[in-house]
Structures are given as structure tokens and as C-alpha cells.
Write a structure and sequence with these properties.
Blueprint (H helix, E strand, L loop, with lengths): L17 E5 L2 E4 L5 E3 L7 H9 L3 H9 L2 H13 L5 E5 L5 H8 L3 E5 L3 H11 L3 E2 L13 E7 L8 H11 E12 L1 H4 L23 E2 L2 H11 L2 E6 L11 H21 L9 E7 L15
Parallel strand pairs: 4-5, 4-7, 5-6, 7-8
Antiparallel strand pairs: 1-2, 2-3, 3-9, 8-11, 10-11
Length: 294
């Protein structure tokens, strides 16, 4: 388990080499990760089961998020046209699994909430492991693609999570992460209202860390993947308080971000969310690089 009060939850650099970001969070000077210094609760799995997927409004929220998932699966299939076996981590009620299966993937899932895992099984008819990825004991090099949408910022040990995913990838396989672009939101202080774990135990669905483009690239270098970043498609359904106006605004921001990305030769990412792709080398030896801790 990561000692969050001692140092960065990704690269393990001492907290002495970090600066405060906002209450309860620090920014690592080495990898640029923003991480929470709050201790994890004693039962993160129960947090997801009882206090997250136990809420009807949360389930309805996830059921409505379709457009972005379809666009993400389309993009993944373009990167991996041969398709193959896909593992969706933090699959929730299984919507990505269903969309991917319809696109020709052979799908499995991982979900710590028992009720969400059962919903995903019912929706897809596929295997869904009711566990955390880091605790699974699956054979190495099983999957052609592993996806984790809006999951990495919640895991207690992001390095252990990424190493577990890396071990499951076949040579040439792709890890696809979708998460918040911390760099784009760094000056947007209003965004954090109501979303921080201030001076208390961190529950499973409280943000444990936030990745910037630099920290995503650093993470891929640690686990030996060739990585690249893209703007993430938006979820544009009218499921937020903004309704029609919110949906229109999301579409406008998405188009502006895509245009900036294209005109800058894929260097500028303005999107508040990122797609981070990491491809395993096409070789039999799949070792990871060593971590140097200050």
C-alpha cells in the first residue's frame, strides 16, 4: 500500500520534493502527478458497492453515458483493427464492454462493486471479475487491449495498477486510459468544489490522484510502453444540470479541442479529458524499468 504522506503515489519521490496544490493534495516535482495525502479507507471495495453503485442516480448517470463510449471504442478499434481480447477495468455496469462486443471484440471486465459487476454480466453475458485489477491472478499476456475509463484517478496505487495492466498485455497490445487532463484544469479552482477529500479518510470514489500529460508519459515510461496522448471524446448527453446548454457547450469545446490538436500537429491538447494510449513492444521480453526513489 502506498504511503501517501511520505511521497508521490506514482513515482514514489519523497514529499519533500513536492509543492502544495490545494488542501490535501501535493504536486510531484519529478513526474508532475497531483496526489492526495489522505489515507485510504479500510474497505475501498465496500465504498464502491454501498455508497456509489448503491445509488440509483449514479446507475442512471452511467446508463446515459453512451456517445463518448461509442467514440472511444471506435478510436480504439482504429488503433487495433485486428481487435481480439479486451479487458475493461472499472467496467461499472458494462456499457463499454457491450459497445466493444458489438464492434467485434471478445470482452471481459473487472469491477470491484458486486452489484455493478452483476449488471455488467447481465448486460453482456461476459466474464466480469469482482475484484481490483491489482489483486487478480490471471496469466500474463492475455489481452490485446485493456481499457480503463475514468478509473486511474481513483486507484490506491496507480503504479501497481499500471504494472498489473502491463503484465496482462500481449506483445503489441494497447492500454487505453481515459482520465481528467489535470494541466487543462489546473487554474480552474471552481472545478474542485465538492470533489475533494479534505482532511479525512479517502473513500474509494474520492480522487486519489490526477494526471497531467507529463505524468501520463512518465507512467508509460515506467512500465515500458510506447505512449501517446489525444483529446478525449465528450459525453454530450443531457444528463447534467446544464441540460441542453451544457450539452451544446460540451460539443463546442470538443470541436475546438479537436481543431487545436489537428492544427498543432498533435501537440496541443486543450480538452479537459485525455485519452492516453500505451502500446507494448512486439517482443517476447516484457520487463519493466526500475523506479528510482529520492
Amino acid at each position: 500500500m502506498v504511503d501517501r504522506k511520505a511521497g508521490c503515489s506514482l513515482c514514489r519521490t519523497s514529499i519533500r520534493f513536492s509543492v502544495p496544490e490545494f488542501e490535501g493534495y501535493r504536486v510531484c516535482s519529478n513526474c508532475d502527478l497531483t496526489w492526495s495525502t489522505e489515507e485510504d479507507s479500510g474497505n475501498l471495495q465496500a465504498d464502491w458497492e454501498n455508497d456509489y453503485y448503491g445509488r440509483t442516480d449514479i446507475v442512471q448517470f452511467h446508463e446515459a453515458r453512451r456517445s463518448g463510449i461509442e467514440a472511444i471504442v471506435t478510436r480504439l478499434t482504429a488503433v487495433c483493427p485486428g481487435r481480439g481480447r479486451l479487458l475493461d477495468v472499472g467496467t461499472g455496469i458494462g456499457l463499454l464492454m457491450r459497445v466493444a462486443a458489438l464492434a467485434g471484440w471478445e470482452v471481459e471486465g473487472v469491477e470491484p462493486s458486486a452489484r455493478a459487476a452483476q449488471s455488467a454480466r447481465s448486460l453482456t453475458g461476459a466474464i466480469v471479475y469482482n475484484e481490483f485489477l491489482e489483486n487478480l491472478r490471471l496469466g500474463a499476456h492475455r489481452y490485446d487491449a485493456i481499457t480503463a475509463l475514468d478509473t486511474l484517478r481513483f486507484v490506491p496505487d496507480p503504479l501497481a495498477f499500471l504494472q498489473a495492466a502491463r503484465n496482462l498485455l500481449r506483445p503489441g497490445g494497447v492500454l487505453l486510459l481515459r482520465d481528467v487532463n489535470r494541466q487543462a484544469l489546473r487554474r480552474t479552482r471552481w472545478f474542485w468544489n465538492g470533489s475533494l477529500s479534505m482532511n479525512r479518510t479517502r473513500r474509494g470514489f474520492d480522487q486519489a490522484q490526477w494526471f497531467s500529460p507529463k505524468s501520463f508519459r512518465y507512467a508509460f515510461s515506467l512500465i515500458g510502453l510506447e505512449g501517446w496522448l489525444e483529446p478525449s471524446p465528450f459525453f454530450v448527453e443531457r444528463i447534467s444540470a446544464g441540460g441542453r446548454i451544457g450539452s451544446f457547450s460540451k460539443r463546442a469545446i470538443s470541436r475546438a479541442s479537436s481543431l487545436a490538436y489537428a492544427l498543432s500537429a498533435q501537440r496541443i491538447i486543450l480538452s479537459p479529458n485525455l485519452l492516453a494510449f500505451g502500446r507494448a513492444p512486439n517482443e517476447k521480453s516484457l520487463g519493466t524499468s526500475a523506479i528510482e526513489t529520492r
